[in-house]
Specification:
The complex is a heterodimer of chains A (177) and B (316). Chain A is an alpha+beta fold. Chain A has a single domain (3-176), classed as Alpha-Beta Plaits (2-Layer Sandwich), CATH 3.30.70. Helices cover 20% and strands 27% of the residues of chain A. In chain A, the strands form four sheets. Chain A has a four-stranded mixed beta sheet, with helices on one face. In chain A, strands 2-3 form a two-stranded antiparallel sheet. Chain A has a two-stranded antiparallel ribbon with strand order 4-5. At the A-B interface, β2, α2, α3 and β6 of A face β1 and α4 of B. β2 of chain A pairs antiparallel with β1 (2-6) of chain B, so a sheet runs across the interface.
């Protein structure tokens, strides 16, 4: 079992619904977010190309945040999901420094917080909040160890990339390009 | 040309637009940890070579700084923790993959030893006092025990202080997400700088000319090593991947160029080295000046590396 997400950059319109859904579902405090939308513009006018990406924790296979955590609060649970156990976190910030994606933040209550792939929903068989609300249905979530899952089929047929693969973390958010 | 912006209004405190999570408490702690490691390393070596009578400043006086420096450093660290009431979690597990974890344990070894060390000299600090009264005389056997076993403390201190000194650098170099930190020279560089500031502290507190001369010589070698390591680090980064190349430019033309070259290279390394050479060949130089400059350079190196490192990242 290995959860992953594939996001179709050709279908994403950058509406930020995924961001609002996450904030509502996970009671993310005001001014913070676990996911966000990046607009990447390349080229010079008039030859410009825009890529829209819904970004979040990449739930890396070789997660540097898990490696550098001094207490073991950052950990990988079943399905390859990276989580922070709030009661074990001392708030040292090492994981925030170690993340090439800047996907973590310090919660106003002191512990470090981040995307959990909506673990509480996923264990009940539901989709993560961001995926479930996407109006263009550009996000696919599922088990990439299962060759017949929807996400496995998408990754088989579509060209894809991951962000900063040179950081050596083996990220598990795939962008279909 | 490529431009990336957040269109969902992301503006996380201390993270956007660029990371500035670790501040002066971390820099101060890295400096104080290196300083304490340097002082205790030399004190332990002096005891192991049985030269206590010759280098009194190193074993007896400079070592008072060590527990104070570690104590202040630890307070700074605790101040920096945002979930501080869970700090005890550090000491219910050992995670060898995490430099912060084994660094925390190394501190737990060195902190009590540095206190025991100064305790073993406690009576000598106040030679005119009469110690044979009341409760204090009950603790005589403890102090006698410590004095008798000082060499055992020294044997533990030598590896422990090297570990502490190098850990202050490895803590940063383990973060591959920050290209300026992510180079293997940083550990040895911070260790050398820590030893150098330790030698400077001993020079400051020493009353004997021979001792100051000895530690000026040691300091000179350490400064030379540091300059070599810094050159080596910048060369490696210039020849490295794009992110490392860009990171090195922060110190070679970018935002931190002036502070790095003026405070670390010139005032913190080159100038005290020249003064120490003058002193060694016979000119009269007040020993306090190169020593204070070395300490200043040590502080500035930590502050600049911590601040500048957080500006560097992977772009995608």
């Amino acid at each position: 079992m290995r959860y992953a997400m594939a996001i179709d950059t050709k279908k994403c319109v950058g509406c930020s619904d995924c961001v609002v859904a996450c904030q509502t579902e996970n009671n993310v405090p005001e001014g913070f977010c676990r996911d966000w939308v990046t607009e990447s513009v390349s080229g010079t006018y008039p030859q410009v190309e825009i890529e829209l990406r819904s970004e979040r924790c990449n739930h890396c296979e070789d997660a540097p945040c898990v490696r550098c955590c001094p207490t073991g609060a950052s950990q990988i649970v079943d399905g390859g999901i990276v989580i922070v156990e709030h009661d074990e976190c001392i708030g040292c910030g090492a994981c925030i420094e170690s993340c090439p994606y800047d996907a973590r933040y310090v919660h106003p209550e002191g512990y470090v917080d981040k995307c959990t792939f909506c673990l509480h929903r996923v264990t009940e068989g539901l989709q993560p909040a961001c995926v479930s609300v996407c109006p263009t249905k550009c996000m696919y979530f599922g088990d990439i160890d299962d060759p017949n899952s929807e996400i496995s089929n998408m990754l088989k047929t579509r060209k894809q990339k991951t962000l900063a693969p040179e950081a050596g973390t083996n990220p598990h958010i795939f962008y279909l390009v | 040309m490529k431009e990336e912006i957040f269109i969902s209004g992301r503006n996380l405190p201390h993270i956007d637009p660029h990371l500035e999570l670790w501040h002066w408490p971390i820099s101060l702690y890295l400096f104080l940890g290196g300083l304490a490691a340097g002082i205790l390393f030399f004190a332990a070596l002096v005891v192991l070579f049985r030269k206590e009578d010759k280098y009194i400043g190193a074993v007896k006086y400079a070592t008072i700084i060590a527990p104070i420096a570690i104590g202040v450093g630890l307070l700074a660290l605790l101040y920096d923790l945002s979930h501080v009431w869970y700090a005890w979690r550090l000491y219910v597990t050992i995670r060898l993959e995490s430099p912060m974890s084994w660094g925390a344990w190394t501190l737990m070894v060195i902190m009590p030893i540095s206190i025991l060390w100064t305790l073993s000299y406690f009576k000598e600090y106040f030679p005119k006092w009469n110690w044979d009264f009341g409760l204090i005389s009950y603790f005589d056997w403890v102090i006698d025990f410590l004095i008798y076993h000082r060499r055992i403390l020294a044997w533990i201190l030598v590896p422990a202080t090297i570990l502490l000194g190098i850990y202050t650098g490895i803590l940063l170099s383990a973060f591959n997400a920050r290209p300026l930190w992510n180079n293997p020279i940083l550990g040895p560089l911070f260790l050398t700088s820590g030893l150098s500031t330790g030698a400077a502290a001993i020079i400051l507190l020493s009353k004997s000319h021979a001792e100051r001369r000895m530690f000026s010589m040691i300091d000179l070698v350490l400064i030379g090593t540091e300059l070599f390591l810094i050159t080596h680090m910048l060369m490696g980064m210039l020849a490295g991947s794009q992110v490392q190349h860009e990171a090195s430019l922060l110190l070679l033309g970018g935002e931190f160029t002036v502070s790095f070259w003026v405070f670390v290279i010139i005032l913190g390394l080159a100038f005290p080295a020249i003064l120490e050479i003058f002193e060694l060949v016979g000119f009269k130089v007040p020993a306090i000046i190169p020593a204070l400059l070395v300490l200043l350079g040590g502080v500035m190196l930590r502050f600049i590396m911590v601040e500048a490192g957080q500006l560097t990242r992977y772009l995608y």
